[in-house]
Amino acid sequence: MEQKIKDALEQIRPFLQRDGGDVEFVEYTEDKIVKVMLQGHCVGCPHAQATVKGGIEQILKELFGDDVASVEAVN
């Protein structure tokens, strides 16, 4: 599952990079939580939470259904 998530993040990454940001996979937990680290301009951006929940989480849930409970940003 981790590799599938990493591959999906590779597809999402260019959209973040267009605005000077990036995302790095950190962990996929037993509770089906995907942990990511935002980088670049995403760090400290007031829209970072919306990017994680409304963007990355939504896409991963659409792709993987019940295998992804949520996506959380870590520092």
Q: Structural class of the helices, strands and pairings?
A: alpha+beta
Name given to the CATH architecture: 2-Layer Sandwich
Outline type: globular
Q: How many strands?
A: 3
How much helicity do the residues have? 40-55%
The CATH class name reads Alpha Beta
- Beta-strand fraction estimate: 25-35%
Describe this structure as you would to a colleague.
The chain is α+β, with helices and mostly antiparallel strands. It is built from two helices and three strands. It has helices at 2-17, 48-64, and strands at 21-28, 33-40, 70-73. Strands 1-2-3 form a three-stranded mixed sheet. Strand 2 (33-40), helix 2 (48-64) and strand 3 (70-73) form a beta-alpha-beta unit. The radius of gyration is 11 Å and the shape is globular.
Short descriptors:
GMP Synthetase, Chain A, domain 3; 75 residues; single chain; three-stranded mixed sheet; globular; alpha+beta
Structure in a nutshell:
By secondary structure, the chain is of the alpha+beta class. It is 44% helix and 27% strand.
What's the layout of helices and strands?
Layout: H1 2-17, E1 21-28, E2 33-40, H2 48-64, E3 70-73
Parallel strand pairs: 2-3
Antiparallel strand pairs: 1-2
